[in-house]
């Protein structure tokens, strides 16, 4: 079982950038699909990006071209580079994982979750 912990959230002005990190403990990332999901209070959770065990990435249309997901197997860390941030990107961002499955990975369906990190983008 993998435990996840996010860091790197904060406040930024529109057009700015942030990089989120997610460290894993209890297990390595090998064999997992990893991803990022965000949620705004009162709204459904939104899958943003995933990366499978082969390094294949998948993005939601809302962030494609602005966000980049990556992982560093050496230090068991997942990243989300967020550029050209918009006020509508304001949300709690969660790191997530699921045992590798192309279907689950492509649909942003995860089983393990971090506690989240807040991102606030002001206009």
Please tell me about this protein's structure.
The protein starts with a strand and ends with a strand. The chain is built from one helix and eleven strands; from the N terminus they run βββββββββαββ. The model has no long low-confidence stretch (mean pLDDT 94). Helix content is 4%, strand content 51%. The strands form two sheets. Strands 2, 4, 5, 6, 9, 10 and 11 form a seven-stranded mixed beta sheet that branches. Strands 1-3-8-7 form a four-stranded antiparallel beta sheet, with no helix packed on it. 33% of the residues are buried. By secondary structure, the protein is mainly β.
Low-confidence stretches: none
Helix content: under 10%
Number of helices: 1
Q: What is the H/E order? A: EEEEEEEEEHEE
Terminal CA distance? 40 Å
> How would the global form be characterised?
globular
Gyration radius, to the nearest Å?
A: 13 Å
Number of strands: 11
Strand content: over 45%
Broad structural category: mainly beta
- Mean of residue pLDDT? 94
Largest sheet: 7 strands, mixed
């Amino acid at each position: 079982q993998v435990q996840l912990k996010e860091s790197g959230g904060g406040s930024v002005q529109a057009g700015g950038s942030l990089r989120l990190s997610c460290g894993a403990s209890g297990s390595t990332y090998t064999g997992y699909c990893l991803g990022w999901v965000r949620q705004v209070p009162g709204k459904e959770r939104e899958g943003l990006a995933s990366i499978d065990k082969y390094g294949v990435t998948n993005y939601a249309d809302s962030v494609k071209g602005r966000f980049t997901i990556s992982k560093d197997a050496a230090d068991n860390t997942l990243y989300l580079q967020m550029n050209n941030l918009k006020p509508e990107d304001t949300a709690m961002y969660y790191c997530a994982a699921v045992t590798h499955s192309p279907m689950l990975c492509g649909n942003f369906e995860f089983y393990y979750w971090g506690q989240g990190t807040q991102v606030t983008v002001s206009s």
